Amino acid sequence: MTLAEIKGVLEEKGLRPLKQLGQNFIFDQNLCQWWVDYVADSLEGTPELLEIGPGLGSLTKPLLKKGFKVTAIEKDRGLSAYLREALAESSDFNLVEGDALDWLAAEEVLPKVVVGNLPYNVTSPLLTIFFKRLQLPQAMFLLVQKEFGERISAPSGDKNFGSLAVLFQTFYKIEKAKKVPPQVFYPKPEVDSLFISMRRHEKLPLSLDQISDYEAMVRKAFSQRRKKLKNLLSIDEERRAEELHLEEWVPLYLKMESTNKKTAQVR
């Protein structure tokens, strides 16, 4: 949708962008088409996608045109009503009206591919909920705040390297594919955005039933950065969390798990 079309729809429907929901609508049609082509080139076939926060459908419409089936979650009632009307003739579109966090927490089977222009204030909770549900999507193609994208993709030793980087890079290959300026959104945000591609490793280093405990360990390790790991995790490790390399975290977890099992057996 063009900027004029977005403003026209909002005015016609009596709607306005809600800051509390982090609504910034994309009006750059070239960017949306690039996004759709990127997703199509990265996947085999056209599987069903979950779109978080479709807004006015700037990405949804070209995804459907490309042949994807889209289940979209939209919290805003006014936008939901517009999408039902605008995409009523598409049998490949399924709209869920509600909070994405609530839906992801309750849905029995979570989607394998996720796309979305994520609201800045809920990006981290939205993505980490997959760890709590022990269901990791095969791929995610997301537009996020640049700062978040830098944190999640930071290499070992980088100033942004923290719990998010460890958690997601343990299970995903993350690519920073495109920097996106504020000028392509309405209203214009105050920060740059980043398009990131996250594709799950073919062979996961941990079983699904270990993921939740692994997440808890990593978060605890980074909870007090000045403390050595031996004082946080009750393990013989003199270094602090940020001093470990990415490939050391899974062995650390497995060592802790083994030690805890032996302790439990002794008791």
Give the % helix. 40-55%
Tell me the structural class.
alpha/beta
- Regions with pLDDT < 50 over 5+ consecutive residues? none
Rough outline: elongated
CATH architecture designation of the largest domain = 3-Layer(aba) Sandwich
Count of DSSP H/I helices: 11
End-to-end separation: 64 Å
Kindly identify the CATH topology of the largest domain: Rossmann fold
Strand sequence of the main sheet, in spatial order? Answer: 4-3-2-5-6-9-7
Looking at this structure, what is the CATH superfamily of the largest domain?
Vaccinia Virus protein VP39
Mean pLDDT: 92
- Determine and state the CATH class of the largest domain: Alpha Beta
- Count all strands and give the number: 9
Radius of gyration: 20 Å
Order of helices and strands: HEHEHEHEHEHEHHEEEHHH
Largest sheet: 7 strands, mixed
Description:
The structure is a single chain. The protein is an alpha/beta fold and 267 residues long. It has two domains: 3-200, 3-Layer(aba) Sandwich (Rossmann fold); 208-266, Helicase, Ruva Protein, domain 3. Helices cover 42% and strands 18% of the residues. The protein contains eleven helices and nine strands. The strands form two sheets. The protein has a seven-stranded mixed sheet. It has a two-stranded antiparallel sheet with strand order 1-8. The longest helix is centred in the last third of the chain and has 18 residues, at 249-266. The model has no long low-confidence stretch (mean pLDDT 92).
Which features characterize this protein?
Helicase, Ruva Protein, domain 3; alpha/beta; Rossmann fold; 9 strands; 42% helix; 267 residues; two-stranded antiparallel ribbon
